[in-house]
Design brief:
By secondary structure, the chain is an alpha+beta fold. The protein is built from six helices and five strands, in the order ααβαββαββαα. A hairpin with a 2-residue loop joins strand 2 and strand 3.
């Protein structure tokens, strides 16, 4: 049963080792294919730190979503061939983990891009404002805030017409 198979992993200690070029993790990232080594001591690609730590079997499952590898789900064991029977189950788990990890990376990438865009926008000495179809400010740079005498963080939602031409004005 699934519960009995999961119990085999209880009490396993976490292990950390850095990934190396040409190693198993690198291969999993580059190929998007699962890397399984039943006996680490007999595989030249294995990180020597794994052998030194007494790791005997290794499984690197690529977390693939939306056509790219979002990360790697690693499993190590001090027992040889520890993941042979559970490989299919663990690959299914990796598929489930991949989607939220990929989405969180996309959100982080979008937030970083937005921050870079805002820094560039604010570095421009001319006053700039992004205005929507209802003539309300969506975003403005710091120079625009100085021009109109208002903190830039208070400008979103403000009517550009009222701000530039006076209260109740329309363009």
């Amino acid at each position: 049963s699934l519960g009995e198979r999961a119990d085999r992993f209880q009490g396993m200690e976490p292990f950390t080792a850095s990934a190396r070029r040409g190693g198993l993790a690198d291969a999993a990232f580059k190929t998007g294919e699962t890397q399984y080594v039943a006996d680490v001591a007999s595989d030249a690609r294995a990180n020597p730190a794994l052998v030194k730590a007494g790791i005997r079997s290794y499984l690197a499952l690529p977390l693939k979503a939306e056509g790219r590898v979002a990360g790697i789900f690693f499993l190590h064991s001090t027992r040889p061939d520890a993941f042979g029977e559970e490989r299919e189950l663990l690959e299914s788990i990796a598929q489930v983990l991949a989607v939220p990890i990929s989405k969180s990376q996309l959100v982080a990438d979008a937030e970083a891009a937005r921050g870079e865009w805002q820094a560039t926008f604010d570095a421009i000495d001319d006053g700039l404002a992004v205005v929507d179809e209802s003539k309300r400010i969506r975003q403005a740079n710091k120079a625009f805030g100085r021009m109109v005498g208002q903190p830039v963080n208070e400008l979103p939602g403000t009517s550009i017409c009222a701000l530039v031409h006076g209260s109740g004005a329309s363009v």
